[in-house]
UniProtKB/TrEMBL annotation:
PROSITE patterns: HTH_ASNC_2. Keywords: DNA-binding, Transcription, Transcription regulation. SUPFAM superfamilies: Dimeric alpha+beta barrel, Winged helix' DNA-binding domain. Residues 4-65 form the HTH asnC-type domain. It comes from Roseateles saccharophilus. One of its GO terms (molecular function) is DNA binding. PANTHER family: LEUCINE-RESPONSIVE REGULATORY PROTEIN, TRANSCRIPTIONAL REGULATOR AZLB. It comes from the Bacteria. This is DNA-binding Lrp family transcriptional regulator.
């Protein structure tokens, strides 16, 4: 765990809301110079605290892909099979989030796809490439109430 001081924590909260803020704009909110902010952000990236910066798109502007929640059950949790499944999920762009969970399902996935037909094709590939996946169940999101990846960083 990286030691984060109050300035780091303030910066992390701000850049999670808008990663396009300039060092000068961040300096208006944090009591540091723009150059000090640039050095801190560079260090936080190098340490892996800031893993990447992305653009959040408006789903309607790109054709409103449908969101599916998939619960996967695997037959075997052998390390090599689990590693292959994890790599497959990580490489698949349609899989927005993947969680290894407790309970009836082994994995919960958040998947975007243009329609049910393309989603079923994706899941057919998942099963063909990962035969130890026993079954999956699907829920279709009727609407998105909240979408985000902001982690609260205590001050």
């Amino acid at each position: 765990m990286t030691d984060l001081d109050r300035f780091d924590r303030q910066l992390l909260n701000l850049v999670q809301q808008d990663a396009a803020l300039t060092a000068e704009q961040l300096a208006e909110h944090v009591s540091l110079s723009a150059s000090a902010i640039q050095r801190r952000l560079k260090r936080l990236r190098e340490q892996g605290v800031i893993q990447r910066q992305i653009a959040v798109l408006d789903a309607a502007a790109v054709g409103q892909p449908t969101t599916f929640i998939a619960n996967l059950q695997v037959e075997s949790e052998r390390p090599e099979l689990m590693a292959r499944l994890r790599a497959w999920l990580d490489a698949e762009a349609a899989v927005q989030q993947a969680f290894y969970v407790t309970g009836e399902a082994d994995f919960v996935l958040v998947v975007t796809s243009w329609d049910a037909v393309s989603y079923e094709a994706l899941m057919a590939r998942l099963l063909a490439d990962n035969p130890h996946v026993r079954r999956y169940t699907t829920q279709v999101a009727m609407g998105v109430l909240k979408r985000g990846l902001v982690l609260p960083v205590p001050q």
